[in-house]
């Protein structure tokens, strides 16, 4: 049985002139110990799909699905209290904009300690000790000092690492990582990815990785879902996807790798069979 199963997920947003569909009938599933990569351009509905799972979309969004279940539990029928016990403990998420996700009024240490007290049941003393360990694990320099820092006193990369530490603090069963290495240098990117993969292996954790980096996909993913304009274009195991992509949009993404540049120009989606794709 899959850890997370989503069938026919649709997300519509109300606007002043009507509505638009951001996600159109997406199917997603991920197993324990599996890394699922979701790839596609900005605006393809990758993040919106996962925010719908987390229940973090605004009131202007209407979410429907034939099924949304976690470990056999029907998330569509969960009450608010039961869903709160699930989200933030068993399912956690790393967001794209860490500075916007952190509260500017509290120190980084207070915010991660609060997660540990509320969701892991640690005492204040235990939470402080664990917060320091997590900061060290995700490569935050001078971790003791940074526990006392406010978000505006930290770089974007440091704030991102704080968010990663918060997301893994409760040893979740499913981690959704939305561009988790954005704004980090190459060395720290590898450290973070190695950390996530080690946790995924040790804890039997499922990992959904939203990324634009096909190199990261090749190195980490077991399976790949390709999205375009809110729809799923292709799904395959990572080896099959790279060796024999079936959809023109997938071929376009793979051809946009730097090593494929010809005379300084990379192929674009318009170079492929766009007539086969939804408009």
UniProtKB/TrEMBL annotation:
InterPro entries (alphabetical): AAA+_ATPase (IPR003593), ABC_Ni/Peptide_Import (IPR050388), ABC_transporter-like_ATP-bd (IPR003439), ABC_transporter-like_CS (IPR017871), Oligopep_ABC_C (IPR013563), P-loop_NTPase (IPR027417)
Domain ABC transporter: residue ranges? 6-254
How does the record classify its membrane topology?
Answer: Peripheral membrane protein
Q: Which SMART domains match?
A: AAA (SM00382)
- One Gene Ontology MF term: ATP hydrolysis activity
| Cellular compartment(s) | Cell inner membrane
Keyword set, alphabetical order? ATP-binding, Cell membrane, Membrane, Nucleotide-binding, Transport
Per the record, the GO terms for biological process are:
peptide transport; transmembrane transport
Cellular component terms (Gene Ontology): plasma membrane
Q: Which SUPFAM superfamilies match?
A: P-loop containing nucleoside triphosphate hydrolases (SSF52540)
Superkingdom in the source lineage: Bacteria
Q: Where is the signal peptide?
A: none
* Statement: the UniProt record of this protein carries the keyword Transcription regulation: no
Which stretches are transmembrane?
Answer: none
Q: Which Pfam families match?
A: ABC_tran, oligo_HPY
Q: Does the keyword Membrane apply?
A: yes
Give the family from UniProt: Belongs to the ABC transporter superfamily.
Q: PANTHER family of this UniProt entry? A: DIPEPTIDE TRANSPORT ATP-BINDING PROTEIN DPPD, OLIGOPEPTIDE TRANSPORT ATP-BINDING PROTEIN APPD
Protein name in UniProt: ABC transporter ATP-binding protein
């Amino acid at each position: 049985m899959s850890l997370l199963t989503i069938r026919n997920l649709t997300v519509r947003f109300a606007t002043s002139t009507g509505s638009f569909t951001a996600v159109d009938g997406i199917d997603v599933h991920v197993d324990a110990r599996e890394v699922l990569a979701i790839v596609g351009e900005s605006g393809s509905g990758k993040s919106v799909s996962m925010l719908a799972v987390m229940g973090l979309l605004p009131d202007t969004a209407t979410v429907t699905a034939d099924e949304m279940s976690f470990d056999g539990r029907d998330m569509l029928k969960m009450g608010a209290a039961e869903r709160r016990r699930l989200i933030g403990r068993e399912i956690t998420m790393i967001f794209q904009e860490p500075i916007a996700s952190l509260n500017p009024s509290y120190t980084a240490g207070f915010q991660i300690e609060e997660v540990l007290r509320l969701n892991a049941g640690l005492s204040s003393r235990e939470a402080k000790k664990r917060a320091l360990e997590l900061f060290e694990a995700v490569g935050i320099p001078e971790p003791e000092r940074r526990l006392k820092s406010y978000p505006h006193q930290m770089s974007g990369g440091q704030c991102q690492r704080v968010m990663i530490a918060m997301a893994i603090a409760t040893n979740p069963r499913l981690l959704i990582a939305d561009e988790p290495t954005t704004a980090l240098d190459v060395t720290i990117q590898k450290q973070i990815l190695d950390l996530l993969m080690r946790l995924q292996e040790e804890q039997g954790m499922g990992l959904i990785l939203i990324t634009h980096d096909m190199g990261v996909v090749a190195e980490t993913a077991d399976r790949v879902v390709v999205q375009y304009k809110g729809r799923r274009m292709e799904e395959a195991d990572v080896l099959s996807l790279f060796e024999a992509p079936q959809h023109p949009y997938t071929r376009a993404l793979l051809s946009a790798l730097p090593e494929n540049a010809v005379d300084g120009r990379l192929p674009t989606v318009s170079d492929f069979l766009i007539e086969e794709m939804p408009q």
